Amino acid sequence: MPFIDSKVTVSITPEQKEKIKSELGKAITTLHKTESFLMVGIEDKYDLWMAGKKLDKGAYVSVSLFGNAASSDYDKMTALICDIYGNELGIPGDAVYVTYHPISDWGWNGRNF
Description:
The chain is of the alpha/beta class.
C-alpha cells in the first residue's frame, strides 16, 4: 500500500490533478506495487524554500511504501516523478525533491498487513 504525497508551489486544476494521479498510478509499478492500493495526496499553492530562496515552481514528493525497494528502482521512480511534474506542471527536475519512506507496519481495514 503506497502513499504518494505531493506539495507543489503552483496552482493545479482538477484535470491536472487527475492526470498526475493517473501517471503516478502507472509509475508506482516501478516499485513493484499496483495502482489498486495506491493513495495519492496533492496539495497545491504550497510555499517551499530551498537554500533560503522561495521556489516559484517546485515540488516536494514523499513516497511511503509498505516494504522496501531496490535503490535502482527508487532511481527510476525519481526520474518518472520528475518527468510527471515537469510535463504536467512545468516544474523543472532540479526543483522536484523526492523522499522515500519504507514502512514495516501498515494498517488498513481494521488490521495490519
